[in-house]
Amino acid sequence: MSSGxxxxxxxxxxxxLLALIVIAVAFPKVYTNPSITNYGVLTLIFVTVAxxxxxxxGNSGYIxxxxxxxxxxxxYAMGIAARDWHLTGTTVFALLPLCAAVGAIIAxxxxxxxxxxxxxxxxxxxxxxxxxxxxxxxxxSFTGGSSGLSSPFLNWPSTGYNTPFYYIALACAAGTIAIAxxxxxxxxxxxxxxxxxxxxxxxxxxxxxMRVKLSAFVISGAITAIAGAVWFYYINQVEPQTGxxxxxxxxxxxxxxxxxxxxxxxxVLGAIIIEPLTLWLNTQPxxxxxxxxxxxxxxxxLVVVIFVPRGIIPTGGELITKLRTRGRPAVLPAxxxxxxxxxxxxxxxxxxxxxxx
Amino acid sequence: xxxxxxxxxxxxYGGVHALNGATISVxxxxxxxxxxxxxxxxxxxxxxxxxxxxxxxxxVYFGDMTITNYAPDKVFAAGIGRTFQLTRIxxxxxxxxxxxxxxxxxDKQKNLLARFGRDAWTHHRRxxxxxxxxxxxxxxxxxxxxxLSYGQRKLLELAYVLVADPAVLLLDEPAGGVNPTLVNHIxxxxxxxxxxxxxxxxxxxxxxxxxxxxCSTITVLESGAAVASGPPEKIKTDKRVLDAxxxxxxxxxxx
Lengths: 357, 255
Known about the structure:
By secondary structure, chain A is mostly helical.
């Protein structure tokens, strides 16, 4: 591809990114209706957690279905600390680093146990952790049992209540995307993706697999805990079954798979599609009870797995490349030492989209 | 000086003795061959040396270190690189990214910012491109490794093991399943690395022409133990070797 096209690509990407930032920042100024900004806040929280999931699972190939452990723990950490230390108002946001630390500290022993096993076994172990934590939330003395915890008092006027939360959630989402992007271009990200492709081989090339996997798991856990805390303060209440919600895990995995497993933009896109859809379905009287939205999510999951198994972003990127290279040889002329096999996924597949399966 | 040595390595899977007191040694700066019939324990011995399998008994020495039971990453860091019989590359990473995986062993950069920066890569990238050029696949640097042909994967695997500049390279069937031109190309690269950089090789291979032409000493493994060792001329005529493995084929070889 000529450098001219690359420049155009780059300009388009930078322009698109700037436009997205402007839209994201302007959103609550344009739509001041709280029921609309509510969509924005919750969607951004899910952008954060789906991106955090992607940092670990998308890069390493270890599918975690236990992210709710961190989400709930972050919520409970904020609730318990604010209750016991009698914190109210905006001071409570100073607890966010503590919530991140709680998520990170929980992730260490969990990771040390779960990351010893791979693939399906790993998934099952993370689900087991999830149920252990939900049971603990029900039964421990300091968690408030089945009635859960109420958030500390926040005397923001109800009309402008959502807007500060929107910007906090936006900062979380932007920070997480930035971290994901930094990790992807760093050696750390490369090592994670090498582990995804062939962990034993990566170890044989000097990659300290356990350390790399655990670091990603801890980063992912800390971010998810922050998101959980923000969510808790925003909706005012956490109970064991909402903080540690099995649907939470399925939802973020669906978001990542729909947008493009392993791709940064994919996780964001998936969250932006799925979360507002779920919220909207739950507000429709004819779908009341909520279970219809769950059935629909299950349906979407099946459609994604069958028709776009690699997700929107990688499949779309490939389509664009195919259209552009139509009528031109997709492969460089062969050298004397063999030629790339023209079969397979096609060498012209965009590498940057990442996370092909 | 002996650079790599195994002493009485034994490994059993259930009742099957894959290795039965295997004792081999590789002199520094030589190209050594390891041959033997299928199932004689060659790959298992490689796995034990490189930390992929734990031996039931016996020791592995590298220089003056005992590296028995070292994890694969530690073995690699100590200076032993290894390729696999069926090549193991990272199919969903690009060729150049494959090369950079192994680069961390060379990097002593502790600054966190530098690790995330682009500059940290430029040096490794240049080195990686040089090696890709050396094996002859530099034109494919930005393709996904999964789109390479089998022979090119073999070359990539050799190149990325070289990235970390190991003292010893263990190659498991480097000529297996590739065309004769490429076999010669690989043999030339091995000779060049040995002559110019003094790299030591231990090569498992069934292609006798390749082994006899390349190696200065050959060890024969049979039923998990070394039964003979010496220069190719001696191995070609060793009675036990002929019985165990080669049959009469080699004497009829036009070479």
